[in-house]
Amino acid sequence: MGRATKVVLAYSGGVDTSVCIPYLKNEWGIEEVITLAADLGQGDELEAVREKALKSGASISLVADATESFVTEYAFPAIQANSLYENRYPLSTALARPLIAKLLVEAAEKYGADAIAHGCTGKGNDQVRFDVSIGALNPNLKILAPAREWGFSREQTIEYGERFGIPAPVKKSSPYSLDKNLLGMAIEAGILEDPYAEPPEEVFQMTKGLAATPDEPEYVEISFEKGVPVAVNGQSLAPVELIKTINTLVGNHGVGRIDMIENRLVGIKSREVYETPALLVLIQAHRDLESLTLTADVTQYKRGIEETYSRLVYNGLWYSPLKGALDAFVQQTQERVNGTVRIKLFKGTANIVGRKSENSLYSMGLASYGEEDQFDHKAAEGFIYVWGLPTRVWSQKHQS
């Protein structure tokens, strides 16, 4: 392939992606830069972002409202798979990357671009997620990553932008790096780079500190159909509204904060702070409902699938063949995961206190120790004999 001439740039409106526009045109000879900002429910004023891209030199500035598909096509499958990277992080940021990549590829094909660009650096996970996803969706597109190559400091990046009419930030920016969408917020940099330093209260936006939470517990009921959340406290809600409602409910009680040392794909350990109120509670509730409606062997085997699934998503392999195969397995398991889970919210905790389902495999007659006990206790002796036979044979052989 020859040199790229028309590029679609993943655009956020920040310093780095804004500077990418003149950099691509002046340093790499790109004739036309089209920007695309994805609305994933982050709450930003994206019209201002669109206009800034045009002022920075973009020929076309696109804003794609993808919040609905973000929830239904990415978040809900991840909930069905109980996706927790390293058993803690529910992939709120990682899930956005394959969707943004899809939007970029669609825009490139629509406008006849021969390349896609992004502002990721060489140290993070997102560069991998974008590059691999774009390559899976359209391997003929070039991928350009100026920030991986220009070697600018923050100050040099701002100075470069000013040369081409991109204004510097009006005020001193926050020391923290924030990445927010409907599912949660990732918080990095500043004092958080010290893994021993406690995150200051000012970094959190979606969850209350314990001192500000209610002094009385609150109960919330979440209903699922085929493993997908559909109602809160008996009220059916559209997907986006459901996530917003649960974010507010559980965030009000200080639930949803994560502070962890995370193993990045590029080999670096990083200190990550996340707020993911709804996503964490939904996975917790969904997993509990599965314990009521799935057989023991399916539940236990699925745990290994979930770990692999989470790692694939984190590592940018959403569009990989293995991920597709695991999707098929997960969807098969969800056919009877219907019911309601009751959760008690109080002072930073979300404890499941009840669950019910028409597909429940729980039998009061078998589980009870009361008069309604229907279990055949005499059958246990023969079962134990057969179950323990290999161990007894092994022991007799070695002791002799």
TrEMBL record:
Segments forming domain Arginosuccinate synthase C-terminal: 176-394
Residue ranges annotated for the Arginosuccinate synthase-like N-terminal domain, each copy included: 6-167
GO biological process assignments: argininosuccinate metabolic process; L-arginine biosynthetic process; urea cycle
Keywords: Amino-acid biosynthesis, Arginine biosynthesis, ATP-binding, Cytoplasm, Ligase, Nucleotide-binding
Enzyme Commission no: 6.3.4.5
UniProt: ATP binding residues: 10-18, 38, 119
Top-rank lineage group of the source organism: Bacteria
GO molecular function, one term: ATP binding
Pfam families: Arginosuc_syn_C, Arginosuc_synth
The UniProt record lists the keyword Ligase: yes
Catalytic activity as recorded in UniProt: L-citrulline + L-aspartate + ATP = 2-(N(omega)-L-arginino)succinate + AMP + diphosphate + H(+)
Keyword check for Cytoplasm: yes
GO cellular component: cytoplasm
Residues annotated for L-aspartate binding in this entry: 121, 125-126
CDD domains the UniProt entry points to: ASS (cd01999)
Pathway as given in its UniProt record: Amino-acid biosynthesis; L-arginine biosynthesis; L-arginine from L-ornithine and carbamoyl phosphate: step 2/3
Subcellular location: Cytoplasm
UniProt xrefs under InterPro entries: Arginosuc_syn_C, Arginosuc_syn_N, Arginosuc_synth, Arginosuc_synth_CS, Arginosuc_synth_type_1_subfam, AS_cat/multimer_dom_body, Rossmann-like_a/b/a_fold
Residues annotated to bind L-citrulline: 89, 125, 129, 177, 262, 274
Protein family per UniProt: Belongs to the argininosuccinate synthase family. Type 1 subfamily.
Subunit structure: Homotetramer.
HAMAP family linked: Arg_succ_synth_type1 (MF_00005)
Matching PANTHER family: ARGININOSUCCINATE SYNTHASE (PTHR11587)
Name of the protein this chain belongs to: Argininosuccinate synthase
Organism in which the protein naturally occurs: Desertifilum tharense IPPAS B-1220
